[in-house]
Amino acid sequence: MFEFHSLHSTAYDNRNSETTVKYWLIKVFEVLKGIQDDIVLDGTVYLDETYFSKAKQNKIKKDGKEQRGISRNKKGVGVACNDKASIYIVTGTSKPSRTSTMRTYGKHIAEGSTIVHDEEKSHNILVEELGLKNEVYLSNEIKQLNDKENPSYPVNHLHMLLKKFMRAHGGYDRENLQDWMNLFWFIMNEPKDRYDKVLKFIKMAIMSPKRVKYRDALSKRHDK
Q: pTM (2 decimals)?
């Protein structure tokens, strides 16, 4: 479950039913709630938003056609990283604003850090409020560069891995997107060793007062 595996392959590998795996996934979500709340990145911080489509039945159409590009049919996720850690926070918007940018990143970036980002204007509030140093690159220009030369590569690489992870769970519940982001955070951050990661989770689960009943969990839609 702490790898890039679908629920189907996890069930197959562990010889469980998919229903059982869904139940355990919901329990994992409960244990991981709020796990990113106290993460603060310092030094040089790379940040950018990525987007996921809303469920088909919730998409807004204009003249019978779906809107293209960044629209209200997308859900934004703010991704930021330094050389030690990363965060993945649902923005609550389909297009960044100064308010959503501060809400997403504000408490996760240490004052005096340097942010590396594209020309998204809403990011300026972070510089103003947190006293950050600012490195801005034009997305049209850096798009032509190879990975080693692209200053936004660290966060772009995380976008790629995040998309790959979510594609493995194509039927995920969009309403629980932050739960999926917490799981991805747990996979991507320390400890890197798989067994240390499992041990850390077990300790968290033991300390967690949360209880999830099988019947209650599966009466809710966490996988659609």
A: 0.83
